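Quarterly update, task 2.4: nicotinamide-adenine-dinucleotide-bound model.
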Amino acid sequence: MHPLRIGIIGVGNISGIYIKNLTSFRSTTISAVADIDLSRAEAVAGQIEGAEALTPEGLLASANVDLVLNLTIPNAHGPVAIAAAKAGKHVYNEKPLSIRLEDAEALLAEAKKAGTLVGGAPDTFLGGGIQTCRALIEEGAIGEPIAANAFMLCRGHEGWHPNPDFYYAVGGGPMLDMGPYYITALVNLIGGIRRVSGSTRITFPTRTITSKPKHGQTINVETPTHISGTMDFDNGAIGHITTSFDVFANDMPNIVIYGSAGSLIVPDPNGFGGEPLIKRAGEQEFRPVPLTHGFSENARGVGVLDMAYAIRGNKKPRASGELAHHVLEVMHAFEKSSTLEKHIHLTTHTEKPEAMAPDTYADELD
Ligand SMILES: NC(=O)c1ccc[n+]([C@@H]2O[C@H](COP(=O)([O-])OP(=O)(O)OC[C@H]3O[C@@H](n4cnc5c(N)ncnc54)[C@H](O)[C@@H]3O)[C@@H](O)[C@H]2O)c1
């Protein structure tokens, strides 16, 4: 079987780890790279054996590309992916799937028409940390999941990011930036979400950049920077999430799942490994649980590898477009609920993606 030939559009910061991993898996290869900055594509292609540098249009037209890996900026995720589906390519987007729900819907419709698959980041939930937690829940270690809390609290990115404006523009904010990791992990651990409510605020209407090179410049904040919401899961569990760029100090865990017979502290969903902590009824303290599943190093791209298997086996990828679309609707629904002052019933539905087998490592995903 030939490896899946991947063409990357957008070779910025995050592309390095994808290139490292996708050139090391046996079932994937990188055949082309493109960027609106062609010189950047040329520099990257020079470091990948067998890859050519193309314009984005040239990459979409190339007969040597099966799947487009879309690593452009969030605002371009939708348009680039829709063009890829229209060109008859499979496509995998970095998160969020798009910043506009309409783009996500158009993307899935175009791919359906073309008979191609859509996938989307994050794929951290396929790592050993979250998969070990999932196995614990499914073997009944904490009983029936009844509730969850999730927290992503920080003071924003203008102190270190060289170009932080987009975090405070429409389509930015802590929910669309970091929510995909948390909500995708929660859906993987508990299941789909049917109803959402939220309250949001802009605490600081302007931000002063303290990083270089824009030190001293002011950003006008256009999007909520503190978002709290509740999620009613299909199975009756009730989740809470707060994402914030407004908080100076915080000692909350990333995610806790509360079951009828115990509680589980889940490792950071923005990583692949970590250490789950469990406390079951009758136990005095939380105790660490060793990881039972593979991909606990930085395995970014394992979702693309899983797509190679899905394409080959004619089945649904785990980090699917359908899942990413559901997560996107949930994230938008918090602000919608806050504005309309009512619960939002979701129109998208999803099931937990298929669990990974224990002790699975590269190229053994079936
Ligand atoms: N950097 C990280 O640590 C990180 C982590 C997780 C996820 N992500 C996600 O990965 C994506 C890329 O992030 P990044 O940090 O690599 O950004 P980046 O700005 O470093 O790179 C983006 C690249 O895309 C190119 N580009 C932009 N619009 C384009 C278009 N329409 N067509 C072709 N090329 C285009 C840019 O020229 C640039 O080279 C974002 O969606 C981000 O949310 C980044």
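Highlight for this quarter: The chain has a mean pLDDT of 96.
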